[in-house]
Structure formats: C-alpha cells, structure tokens
C-alpha cells in the first residue's frame, strides 16, 4: 500500500508526486498509456509567471496582484477568485521549485493572451515532465506503473476515497489520499458533443489519454463540476498543417484577423479562446492573420507561438509584394482587403477603433501598428481545441468538492481535470501553470492528510 495514489503522468501528476514525496509520503503513480507526458508534453510550453528574475532582467514590473487582476479580467470574473488568488500567491515559489527540480527556462519572455506585461515563460514541455519525473523517482519513494488504466475510485457511500480499481480488476489502496491528474476530455467525442457542440468542426490536438476518465470516476462519487459551458478552442491553428500542432499568434504582435470576405471580425487583442469563438462563426470556420514586414520582424523563433520564421520556411504563409497580390493568393477580393487594411491603419493613426474597440496589441499591453511595409503576409487560421479547461470543482488545497461545497475526503485533483480557475476565457501559460502550481499544492496536501 502507498500513502498516495496519483492518477495520470502529465505535468500535474508528476508535480503532485514530487511534492508528495518531498512531504514524506510514498507514492504510486498510475499512467494509462505506455509513456508519461500526456497533453502537457504536447503543449506550447508556456507558463504564466509574475515577479520572476527573468522579468527583472528585462525591467518588467509584474507581481501577484497584476497577475490576479489579469486572470480575473480575462476570465470575465466568472472564474473562482479564490483559486486565481491561490495560483498568484503560489506561482513564484513554484517557479523556483521547478528550477530546483531541473526544469530549464528560456531567457526570453513575451506578452500573449490576457497579459498586461510580458510574462510568458517558456520551457520544453516534454523536458519539464521528464525533469519532475526524474526528481520524484530519485527519492526512492515513487512506484511508477504505465499501462495501468484506472476504472473507478474505491469509496463507500458518503465515505472517503480509499483507493482505485484498475481496468484489469485489480484494487489498489491508498493509506492517505488519491489525486486525480488525468487530464481533460478533448479526445472524447461524446463529451465534446455534450459540452462543446459549437467546436465540432474545429481541429483537436490533445494527449491520447484525454478521455474524461477523471471526470467520470469523480462524479460517480459525488464530485461537482465547474465551467463546463466554457470549453473553447484556441485561435491561430493552420487548418491544413498536420506537422505543427502549435498555434501562431501574430495578432498579438500587431496583425489583424480577416475572414474570407476580407473583413475584420473581432478585436484581435482579446484572449485567443474568445478569438477561437469568433473564427468558428466565420465562413468555413477560418480566417487569416494579415501582417506586414515590420510586424513579421517582431517574431521570435524561441517562442513557439511567435515563431514566424519557421512557419515561413515550412511554406505556411502566403506572401505578396502588394496587398492586391496577397488577396489574389488567398482568394479574397483585392479591393476589399486593401480597404480593410486602409481603414484599420486609419484607426491606428487616430487612436480609435470604432469597429471593434481594439486599443492594444494584447489585453492591456502594446501599441497598435500600421500594416504598410511590404511584403505582406497572410497566415490561414482556425481554432484548435488543445484542452477542455473545465472540470472538477476544487478548493484552494485541491480537495475535490461536492455541489454543497463539502469535501470528498481522501480525494484531490489537479491540472486540466479541474474547473473554476480559468472562467470564460484563458491567459497564455495558465494551463501548464495551473498544472504545476496545483499539482504541487495537491501533492503537499495529500501527503499531509
């Protein structure tokens, strides 16, 4: 028997395992697939962190309070403020903890969805999972079992969760607690049709294990759910590229988004989850990010969502010496595209966008840029569902809660399987950030229970 059983071997699961063993517990980590990583390893590798040494080097003034303000604003104030505050207060210590565990951060920080200042901290996400796993296993108190799918939780009616039953029928008991870190349900068509039918035509990129197992087994013992009506896709995925799963966020450097009619259709500075909603409402569920050479030159090949050069080398951009030439390539009426860009440039010069109210490059950050220097670029973009960002209701210690707010004893959850934190939209880096911050919190609490 182990003190703690962790279900799922992504970033949240291994963060929980490491924190639990550091708290003196023995851990059994169960992964349904042959290898660890899950959706975490497929992510863009961004963490939303505030007040770091990397920001200090760049002269960026940031901290927990501004991070909290941004999280609540981008979540449209329907997210659980107590969870957002917990994240903000714990993220800097978690950043230091990750570095001590061997996680390497790029020195480059950027501003992206929902951020008022540069706070995208980048890692290789697969390396992050591997580092947490290696550090946890070095303790000698972790047993790792891949190919071990959990069927359900062991619990008496209204009683504590005491262990798990595997698909094989084997029952495993936990002396203290069970932590669910099994991810979302982006690979479960039935659940997606139930909770996000508007994204039926979107692209889906997630770990193969993202089947909603954790939601199913936890609700079976009385767990409540949060934010199930806020499943959203991310804007910026090339609709036909099958080799690159990541999005491109040129809009946050000054590009505009136009539809097949050559018209802007949204304030490009808002969360790319809301941009995802907007593009799904356009003809063929697709738009184009339009930029000029000046904006193209602000890309950064060290940040996946801003790696313009690589996408150009891969032939994913349309490029024209004039807007008319570009319009012909993407089969948009040339006069319409020219007029759209001219109208937008006029708004930039006047400092007022009466069409959509865009004021910044992204959220509350950045000065708008004219699109005027040839050559001109167009990047086809649709929405991609990377994760479901909703799920089990938890408290600030990652205890799983019932609808009446009471705790289900012996049960914790962390990562994508949980709801309440993001709210109606999403800040870049808050998903992977949530995984490690609340994974650490869950592991510490489970070990102490």
The DSSP helix count reads 14
The unreliable regions are: none
**What share of residues is helical?**
25-40%
Choose one word for the global shape. elongated
Q: Looking at the chains present, what oligomeric state does this protein adopt?
A: single chain
- Provide the residue-averaged pLDDT: 94
Task: Report the sheet with the most strands, covering strand number, pairing sense and barrel closure.
Answer: 8 strands, mixed
Strand content: 15-25%
The secondary structure category is: alpha/beta
Rg result: 22 Å
Q: Would you report the number of β strands? A: 19
Task: Please give the alpha-carbon distance between the first and last residues.
Answer: 16 Å
Question: Please, could you describe this protein's structure?
Answer:
There is one protein chain. This protein has helices at about 10-20, 40, 55, 65-75, 80-100, 125-140, 190-195, 215-220, 270-280, 295, 310-315, 325-330, 335-350, 430-449, and strands at about 1-5, 25-30, 45-50, 110, 120, 140-145, 150-155, 160-165, 170-180, 205, 225, 235, 255-260, 285-290, 320, 375-385, 390, 400, 405-415. About 55% of the residues are buried. The strands form 4 sheets. Strands 1, 2, 6, 7, 8, 9, 18 and 19 form an 8-stranded mixed β-sheet that branches. Strands 10, 12, 13, 14, 15 and 16 form a 6-stranded mixed β-sheet that branches. With about 450 residues, the chain is of the alpha/beta class. The radius of gyration is 22 Å and the shape is elongated. α4 (about 65-75) crosses α5. The protein contains 14 helices and 19 strands.
């Amino acid at each position: 028997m182990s003190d703690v059983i962790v279900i799922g071997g992504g970033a949240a699961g291994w963060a929980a395992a490491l924190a639990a063993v550091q708290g003196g517990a023995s851990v059994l980590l169960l992964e349904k697939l042959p290898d660890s990583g899950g959706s975490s390893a497929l992510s863009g590798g961004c963490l939303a962190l505030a007040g770091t040494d990397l920001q200090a080097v760049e002269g960026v003034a940031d901290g927990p309070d501004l991070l909290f303000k941004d999280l609540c604003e981008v979540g449209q104030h329907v997210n659980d403020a107590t969870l957002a505050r917990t994240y903000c207060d714990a993220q800097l210590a978690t950043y230091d903890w990750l570095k001590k565990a061997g996680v390497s951060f790029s020195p480059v920080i950027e501003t992206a969805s929902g951020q008022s200042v540069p706070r995208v901290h980048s890692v290789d996400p697969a390396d992050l999972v591997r580092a947490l796993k290696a550090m946890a296993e070095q303790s000698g108190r972790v047993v790792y079992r891949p190919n071990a799918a959990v069927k359900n939780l062991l619990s008496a009616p209204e009683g504590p969760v005491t262990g798990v039953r595997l698909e094989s029928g084997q029952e495993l008991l936990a002396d203290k607690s069970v932590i669910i870190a099994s991810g979302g349900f982006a690979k479960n068509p039935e659940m997606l049709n139930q909770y996000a039918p508007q994204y039926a035509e979107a692209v889906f990129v997630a770990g193969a294990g993202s089947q909603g197992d954790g939601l199913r087994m936890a609700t079976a013992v009385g767990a409540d759910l949060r934010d199930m009506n806020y499943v959203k896709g991310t804007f910026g995925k090339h609709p036909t590229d099958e080799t690159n799963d990541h999005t491109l966020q040129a809009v946050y450097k000054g590009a505009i988004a136009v539809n097949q009619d050559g018209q802007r259709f949204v304030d490009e500075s808002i969360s790319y989850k809301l941009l995802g909603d907007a593009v799904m409402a356009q003809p063929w569920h697709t738009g184009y990010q339009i930029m000029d050479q000046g904006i193209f030159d602000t890309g950064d090949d060290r940040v996946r969502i801003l790696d313009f050069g690589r996408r150009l080398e891969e032939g994913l951009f349309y490029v024209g010496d004039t807007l008319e030439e570009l319009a012909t390539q993407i089969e948009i009426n040339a006069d319409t595209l020219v007029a759209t860009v001219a109208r937008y440039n006029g708004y930039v010069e006047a400092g007022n966008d009466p069409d959509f109210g865009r004021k910044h490059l992204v959220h509350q950050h950045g000065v708008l840029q004219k699109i005027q220097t040839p050559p001109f670029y167009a990047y086809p973009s649709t929405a991609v569902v990377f994760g479901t960002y909703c799920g089990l209701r938890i408290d600030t210690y990652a205890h799983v809660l019932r609808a009446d707010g009471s705790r289900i004893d012996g049960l914790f959850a962390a990562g994508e399987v949980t709801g309440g934190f993001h709210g109606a939209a999403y800040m870049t880096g808050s998903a992977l950030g949530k995984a490690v911050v609340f994974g650490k919190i869950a592991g510490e609490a489970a070990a102490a229970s």
